[in-house]
C-alpha cells in the first residue's frame, strides 16, 4: 500500500477539515498535495497558513473536481487520496441542484476513475455525511429537557449505526449519497482500497462557519461579534458534535488500516457523549463570551433532522479511535482561535463587548 514517502492528495485541503488534516500529515513528515478551487471564503487564508508552516513538503494545486484532466494529473502525483472537497450546503443544493451534483457526484467519480486508471492500489478515503440517512422521520420523538429525543431507549442510548437504511433527502443528500455508494462500489468492483466516513457536525479551528454550513463556528462568530442569531427550527434539535482534532485522528487511523477496512462505511461523530441541542451550544457560548445575543426563530429547513446522534462503535472497534475532546472544552478552543485570529462577520470590525 502507500509508503510514507508518497504524497497524500487531500482534495479540499485548504478547507476546514482539509487544512487541519494536511497540517497533521505534514507535521509528521508526510508530503501532501492540496487540491482546492479556493471558492469558499477563508480557505485561501488556510492555504497561506499551510504554506508558511510547511514550505518544503506541501504542493498546492488550484483546481476543480469537475476538471477530469486536472484531477487525473493530481492523482498521478499521489500515493493516497483523502477526498474532502465538496459542495457542502443543503441550501445551495436546493438553489442549484445541477451544480451540486456535478461537484459532489461527478467530481467524486472523476477522482475514482483517475485512481482506477492509474493501475495502482491507491488508498481512497471519502468524507460522506449523516444526511445519507435522511430526515429520520420514521423515529417517534419526544421533547424533554429542552431536546428532541427518540422514544426508543436503544436508539437514544446508542445512536444511529451503519445498518440504518439509506434514505437520501435533498439534492445535497442525494449527491453525497451517490458519491458514498460509488466509493464503496469501486472497492468491490475494481479493488480500490477505499472507505467512507459519514460525518456528523465537525467544528474547530480554521472553520469559517456560515448560516448555511458550519453552524457551531457560525454561532460562535456571531455571538463573539455581538451579532444576533437566527435558528431554523425550535433550537431543540440535537447533534453529536466532534472537534476537528478528533476527526483528523479518525481519518489517519482508517488510512493506516485501509487494507483491512476497505469497502466499509463508518459513522464519524461525537457520539452520545457529545450530543447537544442547538440551545445547549448557545447557552455555553454565552458563558464563554459573556454576551447575550438576541435569538430569532425561523421555519425548519428541508431535510433538517430533529435529532441525529451517530453510533460510532464500528469505527471505535475497527481502529481503537475514540473522541478525546469534550464539546464544552472544544467550544472554548474554537472561541480562543476565533479571537486570536480576529474572525468576525465579513465587513465588520472587532465589536465592543455587549454587557451580560
Description:
The protein has a single domain, classed as 3-Layer(aba) Sandwich (Rossmann fold), CATH 3.40.50.720. The strands form 4 sheets. A 7-stranded parallel sheet has the order 3-2-1-4-5-8-12, with helices on both faces. Helix 1 packs parallel to helix 2 and helix 1 crosses helix 9. The chain starts with 7 loop residues before the first strand and ends in a 16-residue tail after the last helix. Helix content is 41%, strand content 18%. Strand 2, helix 2 and strand 3 form a beta-alpha-beta unit. The protein is an alpha/beta fold and 356 residues long.
- Count every beta strand, where a strand is a DSSP E run of 2 or more residues: 15
Question: Could you describe the largest sheet, including whether it forms a barrel?
Answer: 7 strands, parallel
Q: Tell me which CATH architecture applies here.
A: 3-Layer(aba) Sandwich
**At the fourth CATH level, what is the homologous superfamily?**
NAD(P)-binding Rossmann-like Domain
Order of strands across the widest beta sheet? 3-2-1-4-5-8-12
CATH hierarchy class name: Alpha Beta
Distance between the termini: 56 Å
| pLDDT averaged over residues | 93
**Unreliable residue stretches:** 346-356
Q: What proportion of the residues is helical, as a percent range?
A: 40-55%
CATH topology tier name: Rossmann fold
- The general outline is globular
How many domains? The number is 1
Tally of helical segments: 13
Radius of gyration: 20 Å
Structural class label: alpha/beta
* Helix-strand sequence: EHEHEHEHHEEEHHEEHEEHHEEHEEHH
Amino acid at each position: 500500500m502507500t509508503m510514507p514517502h508518497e504524497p497524500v492528495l487531500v482534495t479540499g485541503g485548504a478547507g476546514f477539515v482539509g487544512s487541519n488534516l494536511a497540517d497533521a500529515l505534514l507535521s509528521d513528515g508526510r508530503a501532501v498535495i492540496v487540491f482546492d478551487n479556493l471558492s469558499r471564503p477563508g480557505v485561501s487564508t488556510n492555504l497561506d497558513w499551510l504554506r508558511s508552516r510547511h514550505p518544503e513538503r506541501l504542493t498546492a494545486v488550484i483546481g476543480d473536481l469537475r476538471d477530469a484532466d486536472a484531477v487525473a494529473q493530481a492523482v498521478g502525483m499521489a500515493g493516497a487520496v483523502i477526498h474532502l472537497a465538496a459542495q457542502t450546503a443543503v441550501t445551495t443544493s436546493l438553489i442549484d441542484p445541477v451544480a451540486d451534483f456535478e461537484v459532489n457526484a461527478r467530481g467524486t467519480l472523476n477522482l475514482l476513475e483517475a485512481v482506477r486508471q492509474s493501475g495502482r492500489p491507491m488508498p481512497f478515503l471519502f468524507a460522506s455525511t449523516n444526511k445519507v440517512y435522511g430526515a429520520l422521520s420514521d423515529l417517534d420523538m419526544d421533547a424533554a429537557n429542552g431536546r428532541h429525543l427518540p422514544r426508543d431507549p436503544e436508539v437514544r442510548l446508542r445512536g444511529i449505526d451503519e445498518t440504518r437504511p439509506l434514505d437520501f433527502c435533498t439534492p445535497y443528500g442525494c449527491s453525497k449519497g451517490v458519491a458514498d455508494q460509488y466509493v464503496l462500489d469501486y472497492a468491490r468492483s475494481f479493488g480500490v482500497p477505499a472507505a467512507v466516513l459519514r460525518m456528523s457536525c465537525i467544528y474547530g479551528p480554521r472553520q469559517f462557519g456560515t448560516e448555511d454550513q458550519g453552524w457551531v463556528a457560525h454561532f460562535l462568530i456571531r455571538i463573539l461579534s455581538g451579532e444576533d442569531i437566527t435558528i431554523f427550527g425550535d433550537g431543540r434539535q440535537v447533534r453529536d458534535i466532534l472537534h476537528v482534532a478528533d476527526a483528523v485522528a479518525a481519518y489517519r487511523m482508517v488510512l493506516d488500516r485501509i487494507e483491512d477496512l476497505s469497502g466499509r462505511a463508518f459513522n464519524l461523530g461525537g457520539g452520545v457523549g457529545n450530543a447537544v441541542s442547538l440551545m445547549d451550544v448557545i447557552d455555553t457560548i454565552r458563558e464563554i463570551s459573556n454576551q447575550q445575543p438576541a435569538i430569532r426563530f425561523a421555519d425548519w429547513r428541508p431535510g433538517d433532522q430533529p435529532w441525529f446522534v451517530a453510533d460510532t462503535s464500528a469505527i471505535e472497534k475497527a481502529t481503537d479511535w475514540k473522541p478525546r475532546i469534550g464539546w464544552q472544552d472544544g467550544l472554548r478552543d474554537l472561541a480562543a482561535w476565533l479571537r486570536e485570529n480576529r474572525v468576525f462577520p465579513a465587513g465588520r470590525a472587532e465589536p465592543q463587548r455587549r454587557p451580560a
